[in-house]
Automatic annotation (TrEMBL):
It comes from the Archaea. This is Periplasmic copper-binding protein NosD beta helix domain-containing protein. Residues 25-102 form the Periplasmic copper-binding protein NosD beta helix domain. Gene3D superfamilies: Single-stranded right-handed beta-helix, Pectin lyase-like (2.160.20.10). Pfam families: NosD. SUPFAM superfamilies: Pectin lyase-like (SSF51126). It comes from Candidatus Methanogaster sp. ANME-2c ERB4. The lineage of its organism: Archaea, Methanobacteriati, Methanobacteriota, Stenosarchaea group, Methanomicrobia.
Length: 105
């Protein structure tokens, strides 16, 4: 639990839309995932996307975290759009990632 909300962890899966009650979201080796309209604030990291491709991260509030709002690691071809990532140490961090699109975030 993060701020009395569930943490959603997905590994080796595809084509899932994360429930909107998430307090934190973690993807590991996933594809075609969707995270929309969640409030992942005031934790450590709002969203962790690792070894994941072809996913949509849209219209989320990932602010005031101790580290990053969104962390993208070894991931490609994801779309990150219309997210609030203010007041974090890093708004969005990218490590060993390519071909990700960031819009209005």
């Amino acid at each position: 639990m993060v701020n009395e909300k569930p943490v959603y962890y997905y590994k080796n899966t595809s084509s899932i839309k994360v429930p909107e009650d998430a307090g934190e979201v973690i993807f590991a080796n996933c594809s075609d995932m969707t995270v929309e309209n969640i409030n992942a604030s005031s934790g450590t990291v709002g969203l962790v996307i690792a070894y994941t491709c072809g996913s949509l991260i849209s219209n989320n509030n990932a602010d005031s975290n101790n580290m990053s709002g969104i962390c993208i690691v070894s991931s490609s071809d994801n779309t990150i759009e219309n997210n609030n990532v203010s007041n974090n140490v890093a708004g969005i961090c990218f490590e060993h990632s390519s071909n990700n699109k960031v819009w209005n975030t």
